[in-house]
Amino acid sequence: MQFVKRVYEPKDNGIHVSNLPAVVSADFLRSLFQEAGNVINVVLKHKPTRCFAFVDFSLPSEAQLAVQDFNYTKLNGDSIIVTRTTAEVLNAIKSGEANLYVKGLDTTVDSIQLHELFSNYGEVISVRVPILNGVPRGFAYVQYLKVEDAQRAQKELTDSTINGKEVTILKYLKREDRPMSEAMQRNLDPTFKNIFIKNLPEEINTLLKLLALFKEYGTVTSARIVPEKRIGYVLMDEHDSAVRAVVGLNGRTIYASRVSCCRSLSYQERQKFMKKASKLEPDEKKADDNQQSSSSSTDSPSTNDASILTPPAPPSPQAPQMFKNEEGAK
Description:
Number of domains: 3
Subcellular location: Cytoplasm; Nucleus
InterPro entries: Euk_RNA-bind_prot, Nucleotide-bd_a/b_plait_sf, RBD_domain_sf, RRM_dom
Protein name: RRM domain-containing protein
Pfam families: RRM_1
Largest sheet: 5 strands, antiparallel
Domain RRM: 13-87, 98-169, 193-258
């Protein structure tokens, strides 16, 4: 899917470029798209979870040519997504109503192949096939211009096969609209505000960068980061904000690192957990340790695994990179 916020007004002569590598520069983009026409402006945005740009041309025809020539061009092994920035296109992307989620894909299927297939049912704005460590993850997002075209594609392609594998096609749901799994519900008590996050990417190594990651979910009361361990602790001012952060960040890929995010256990909960662990029989404990070791080797549990995350005790007040607002941590 694409992420478009009201930081850029619709323009007939512009394009939106997403799925960019973090190392890309505005000068590089200007040089790249100069082949499609006269580039008059480039706005590049680096975010913790994504990198995207807006490029303006002198003429709308040049913007259209840029989409035709550069959509799905690979940079650093990943396909960029180039779309027009007309009001119609931006509104379709923002609403998400014409966006489909396709799962069960063979790893040989790419964005171009899916774009050609789904274009049989209407105008496709973009297709994104997420990649992890250079390998497609087996699902994709197909964004149509019109809702009725997306609905027709979903209906007619149900139970179809692509490259010999049966796929499932669903209407895309935003993270906040997805039903919580039983495991996630167990992780969310009705009052918590403290959050633990681990497997932070190396790029998020300062307190300010950690705060930037959480600020879209609400006001942060206090936070700590331990860069060498790639972990952090965040206290939100409201329970609802903490829930949004856990749901929004757990299992999310940030700078190619899949983070784990859950509520931070209280001292009593940690003691209870340790007491329970100490009662395991030697064979059971060994098996459990092996299982945890196997799970932590990837360091990237899925969203549904939030309840099994057991963060260590928060660091002492002398820990590095600590932030507090005027009210302080509670």
